[in-house]
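Lab notebook, bench 4. The sequencing result for the construct came back, and we need a structural model before the next group meeting so we can plan mutations. Quick request posted to the team channel:

Model the 3D structure of this chain.
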Amino acid sequence: MKRIKNSFSIKNLENISGIKAHTIRIWEKRYNLLEPERTDTNIRRYSLDSLRKLLNITLLYNHGIKISKIANLSEKEIPFLVREIALESNSEQVSINAFKLSMVNFDITMFDATYDELLAKNEFNFIYLNIFVPLMSGLGILWQTAAISPSHEHFITNLIKQKIHIQTEIMQRDSMPKINASTFVLYLPDNEIHELSILFINYFILSKGYKTILLGQSIPTVSLKTLLSYSPFLHFVTYVTVEPNKDEINAYVKHFHKELIESTENQLSIFGPQVKHIDKSLVEQGINVYDKIETFIEEQLNVNVFV
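Done. Here's the predicted structure in token form:
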């Protein structure tokens, strides 16, 4: 794993905060809000403290506070006001910024406080679909452009996983599975380890009264055949972020159909970034390809999640 990133270009700051580099330069010159160091070739470099401060300023600015007023706040007043707004606001973007700030600061307390306030007002599925999904989507881009390090991404991802596991345990204890309903088998294909989405969909299926069997990461197709004696009808669900890759995904779907779907009432629902490489004209009966988790939820669970 790379070392924690502690030096940022002005382009990094633009990508993370959403504030244009031109505007950042104006704020520096007019209000002295940031004090970048300069390289021997006169290129701005910003410290981790500068990034934290800019994220705080961005949250206040996006909440309607004028930059001239923010500039008059002390170094202690800015983070105090940020915490108040993050906990009181109903704005999803404010919550996303607060989580982003907690990530940059490696601040578990802020993450938990923001999350607890959201959970007091919203169902968990709303928080995941409307806040965590956009947050993680944005962080993926930041990681690819080296605006943040893997340490940041792993930190926030594991905190979100914790929340999913907690909600899932509560649901498992309190729910009564529907009688004669299909059993959903959730897994990730061989060499696929990105489990955040499959953990959430397992929680959501449980919350609607269905039984699930969660197998987790990197499950070879042959291992799934063990389940065929468990039930006459299984609904397999998987999410392909990286594997099978674009060169293998069509062969994977065809092989899965032959081994686990053909001559049965079983189904496979597959979604994730790699499904765009599936040739849908070749997809056989019993295979459902989805571009979005929400579409899967609506079609397979008959639940409207666009609220």
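Strands lie at 7-8, 37-38, 44-47, 183-189, 211-219, 234-239, 267-271, 287-290.
Will bring this to the meeting.
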